[in-house]
Amino acid sequence: LIHDKMRLKFQLVFFLIFFLKSKGDTSINDLLKRVEKLEHFAENFELDFAKRYGLIRHCSKPKPENGRSICPELLEPKAKCRIICSPGYVITPGHDTTTCQPDGQWDIQLKCEEPLVIISGGQVNAGIFDSSVEILDLSNSKTCKPFIAAMPLVNNTDRYLHNLIYEPNNADLLACNGLHNVPATCHAWQLNPPASQWRVHSSPNSGDTFEMLMDKMHKNSRFINEEPNHPEFKLGRYAAQSFTLGSNVVILGGMVYDDKQNHRTTKTLRSFKKKNWNGLSKFGFDLPRCQLEIPRSFFCSVPLDGHAVVNIGGFSNQTVISNVTYRSCERFGFKDDDYNDFFRLHSNRMADLPTPLSGHGCTQLSNNREILVSGGQRSELDATLGQTFVYSWGNNTWSKQWDMNTPRFGHQVVNIGGNIFAIGGQDGNTFHNSIEKYDPDTGKWNFVSLQMKKSRANFGLALVPASIIKSC
């Protein structure tokens, strides 16, 4: 603190000196040299003082731009802080965690950045599907040079109603699940360094060899009555939600189905970390706990502060629902006072949507943590809607905003750098490539000039750090 105050004073002195010098005053050269010498002394004063008296130099809490740091109370050498990005931003690779050094400095600068939007597959017209990939820079309203090949066909079928997920540990883009894909599979495209083709990645409904063996033993035993770790390993999955929480990739809910085309909604959670997918395994102590409380498909999820998720509406038990729930994803305690103080007051019972919805889009607004929901349908026979609702934590209410200019089902809603966009979708008759931007001040939507190259609905979407995509 003393060092910081002295530095500020020296900066003011330097400003005064250079101001006088710019006015032609040449008598201050000696003064400038003396101030430089004094500043050098001040820079070493704290280290010399700590060394002389056997003190330990601590670090100051990092204050990253477009995010906040989560740190222990005592910031002594070897203490670690991690970053939580503000809505609309993602972690810059390699800048998620930092360690306090003996000199009182952090070894890595915590950083968040505006993401690019990668879109894949989906339905492009009635009975016509697609596997191509697009990259959108919504911050600068431009498309990026494509360098990702079309996704591989699965069972001679394009992927739609699938999940596209950014996996940060390996800088992989994962294309998982989808209709006509039994059992469920994932393919991966490495983003950094860039790959030349997709590779077979994993089976998201399966686990590692040990857990699959345990499941088989439980199934064949008359004495063990435990829920298997991977009960749906032979099934396909579609219309699920996916997101990244810290270093975990999470897939929630959806419809699962077998090779006889028996379909049902599920509430299972799948989490990928390092090499394997996990479910509710008692062996996965560091897995997120935000599993669904009821089966859902065609719903939407909003991750909150890296700690929790809000699940909204969807199709459950043969009907479209309005239910909204908050689920903590933390398995153990954590130190995040900002999060704790806010959600201790507001995260109990959340108000239901004003109307049942499925096939809608949702995201978190910036600054106030409010949640926006747009589009969807109230039933399988209902017309597609353009309506928009915003949830207020303080009032526990949903307020109606202006409708989108185009009714949309199977679209995506994203927050990019604090700006809210609705992308693509279909209205029952027409598939759209248009993009609308939401104005939080007026509650209105306006078309932007940027469009997708193809009209799409029920497509995959991932938010990826712009710094690893060199073609933009």
Distance between the termini: 41 Å
The DSSP helix count reads 4
Secondary-structure content class: alpha+beta
Low-confidence stretches: 281-285
Task: Describe the structure concisely.
With 472 residues, this protein is an alpha+beta fold. The chain is 14% helix and 32% strand. It has 4 helices and 31 strands.
Q: How does this structure look, described?
A:
The radius of gyration is 26 Å and the shape is globular. The protein is 14% helix and 32% strand. The chain has four helices and 31 strands. The protein has 472 residues and is an alpha+beta fold. The strands form nine sheets. It has a four-stranded antiparallel β-sheet with strand order 8-7-6-31, with no helix packed on it. Strands 9-10-11-12 form a four-stranded antiparallel β-sheet, with no helix packed on it.
